[in-house]
Please model this.
Amino acid sequence: MKYRIIHNTSYKYSAPASLSQNELLLHPRRTPSQEVLSCQLSIVPKPQYLHCRTDYFGNTVHVFMVQHPHNELAMSATSIVRTSRPVIPEPNDATAPYEIVAQRLAERRQLIELEASQFVFASPLVTVNATATDYARQSFPPGTPVLVGATDLVRRIFTEFAYDKNASTVDTTVEQVLINRKGVCQDFAHLAISCLRGLGLAARYVSGYMETVPPPGKPKLVGADASHAWISVFLPDFGWVDLDPTNNLIVNESYITVAWGRDYGDVAPVKGVVMGGGAHMLSVMVDVARQEEALV
Amino acid sequence: MSNIDINGASSQKVKPVSIFDLESLPADAYCEAFSGKAQPRKHWQPILNALDAKAPDDLREYHEKTRHMRHEDGATINPFDDSTGRATSWALDMIPLPISEGEWAGIEEGVTQRALLLEKILADTYGPQELLKNGSIPAELVFANPNFLLSCHGIQPSGNRFLTFYAVDLYRGLDGRFKVLRDYASNPAGLGYALENRIVMSRVFSELYHKTQIRRLAPFFQTFHRALIQRASLRREDPGIVLFSPGPDSRIYYEHALLSRYLGYPLVEGQDLTVRNGKVFLKKLAGLEPVEAIFRHIPDLGSDPFALRRETANGVAGLIQVCREQNIDIVNPIGSGFVDTPILKTFLPLLCRQMLGSDLLLENHPSWWCGNSDGLKHAMANLQDLTVGPAMDQSAVVDLYVDSMAEIRTNPSRYMVSGHLAPSLAPTWGAGGVSQCYNVIRVFACATEHGFSVMPGGLAITAGDVETLKGNSPEQQQSKDIWVLSDKPVEPFSMMDGFHAVAEFKRSNDLPSRVADNLLWLGRYLERAEGLIRLLRSVYRLLSGEDRPEDIPELQFLLNILRTKNIIPKNTAADTGLMFYKELQQQLRDALYRKDKPESVVFILRRVQETTRNVRDRLSADSSRAINRLEEFAHNPFSDPIELLDKTLFTLSAFSGLAMESMTRGLGWRFMDMGRRVERALNQAILIRFGLPQVCSGSRNTLQSLLEVSDSLMTYRARYKSTFQLAPVLDLLLADESNPKSLAFQFSQLASHVEHLPRQSERRFSCAEERIALKMLTTVRLLDLTGIECGAQKSQDDTLTPFLECMEALLKEFGQQISGHYLSRVPATPHYTMIPGDRLV
Model:
């Protein structure tokens, strides 16, 4: 599939802000199932300082500063990507028992296992705790093939937790989500990651977008989409498989990957700090539009 | 004979070798001073002899002197905060800890090797991570360690030096060998206290110090400075190096102020610094000044709230980005706290062989990481003899009351166990005389062009019990100066010449905005305190006379002024009689001592102290001493109020005198004086506006009171030699530019100050504060007071009251303009966008 994604973020300040620093993770990644055809970033007012780097996880990060008084700040990223259906091991139950996977991650005999093992430990926003691990065990009776367990865990989170946009903030913890039984995709991803890590498995946080399809007969509204997040779980001798706990899906070609890390903190699409500015008004608009492929 | 007669005659013959001598050597600890009863170690001999030669009373006096000097220098954690009762950091014990030349050479070699090794480990961890990939260090040490900062990976520090300042705690085991207890790199503490101890010791024991061949500390600081200059290629004459402190709330702020002065690096806080175009700047009144190097005294995790996503007020947003751009040398590079990880040391013996090709010279305190099977086995088998601690995060609290074995088994990689700590004992002087205390020594090293240089000396940290010694509470520990002895004569060398000057970028007559802000408020609070004290003192003087309160007309006048200013309550139950008197006494006590009342003397004095604390590094040592005396006020609630107020007024005057005297007539002085002028002018305007109607309706004696509280009574008498007349009194208080208490005088001073402030435009009167100052001065100069009399009360009300109200409004606006123009404190707000996602319906 070919998509054009527009991701606009803007701030309006009640008083002039004198200095604004921002870090953006908006540039989609190249993956085996995703090709990035273009990505353009535009910032208004024009920043005096702009820097681009590749971070520890291989994501593209832009840092910029607006250093003169400004009343609003608008950041816009327009990307064109081509996706294909990610390869997944089939059938599910042919994957290794989860205990074996955990053991290989603990032994780390291969470099790829060592690299995956950094996603086994607790991270700043994802604690590993007994409650979450107990919750995970119900999907992982002894000997459960790892992908069978993971898909079941994702299914349970989908059915047992309510989607509620007002239930959480960027700082909501895994413990709170477990108690409240509601949240948004960020919370479900953090919970699933905590569950898997508690069992010694490697799980990472993926940020990106997904194409939404309007209800039958209704037109698709431009800008009604949102940034999205899901998880990725490591399978030795195979690689990573992405699962979406919010929608109970194995990630397919309608998902666009932007960045991954240990948790939200590593891949926040837009984070910043502003000097002054008084009260802030934030608005975010995301539009994921399928592009017609030119006939060959 | 002596075998039998154990007391009496024989004990007089066998004179004890030393007052420090021990009855018996401790069985479980090495004794620093003695190798056996009456057998002092050779390198202790000169010190013991010198101290033994003094009478016990003299020693007590030396002890007092040592403590006193430390306090006078302000070497306390938080000298103005008596309410928390926090004590002095690492209080100095007057008995030094000598170390022989030979032993020191061993320490020096060991510390240098360790620093080299740790630097190589840092370079690898923040670079290629070969140690991780080849399994030399476990994945947990990097991936599950909060001391490893992901955002710093890949940064190449200035001069490619990953470790430029290092400290290590050593203790001497029962076998006499030094072992390593802890390593520090994030922001090693104690260097300033080691320096302070040396300064005090060399003064108190000047004869002993200069007779004994003790290696000097100054060359180390010079090496530190030169290496920094060279590494950062700072070839300019006056490089922009700052000392970055969390501010006066730090428990060891004194150390930061001292090092700042000694090294000549301006002391800055997070709000003084800003990042522009990938570079760091210091915010000053005239604009931004580039900073090329930072001697950092805040921890890794507090240094950049933006990159590290931490709620911290102390850091500088964007600092790590500046490091990525290689535009700054930070001592130490951010992320070096990896060295502080407790379990790292257990891997050092192997890493040393692997990376340096030699054996680790300094042994570790025996420790095991539970994250590997051998360590876990050892821990489980010997748990009762071991101390359990956090493996990764030094500051983590280990709470293992429930079932430590089960918890360690569940999360083995989080824990480390270590053997029983038995540090050496050394004689210490306390209130009860000599006692033996445990001690560890903190040794410091800095990077040089070719490797590392170790400071010949350091901070010996002592405590009566091992637990306190192991803890991280400088206020519960004591310290000693370490004397590294030399067999050769020592070259005298000192850096104290520049020590009494305030460290400042010398490029321009300019200062950080935060400092200017505090100085302005210091001026205001000082004036406010003095005015209030003068007013209350007048009231107490009237009350102490023979007359009944209701027979003193001036009293009502003064009390009304107090009521107007909300210093005492407006409504009273009784107007006269005993009830009135009793109630008044209580109200006045409240006005003096009520800590929760913003108008009370004690409250304002507290503000004076707090503000002083914020600019302590700008004030002379003498003036800081004067301010320490203000503490007496709150502690004397039962003394005679008049005497107490007199004394406090005297202290305040001494402080302002010393503070203003020691300041050059630069911007700092101007801001402090502006604060004072604004406050005094406001005070005077309000006083006259409310006082005048009462003067006219009441007795003429009230004019005398008005002059007294304005501190202009003497001037009036000298000038007029007559009874009190309204017109000359008003002229003196309002329009007389030669009277330092008059409104006109304040205005003319303000006008002169604003002329000298840094400005963007060369044109005069182009900014608001200049225009306001001129307007106030012109208005008061044009004020016509001729023929003003109380008889024509109506008419003078018509001219004077609006005039005074107008002046008050202008003064307030003036203050706002100055703050807005030079001192604006802008709050920073972090923001993040959520990832809400979508659930398909």
Remarks:
- The domain at 2-83+268-290 of chain A is CATH 2.60.40.2250 (Immunoglobulin-like).
- Chain A has a mean pLDDT of 92.
- The radius of gyration of chain A is 20 Å.
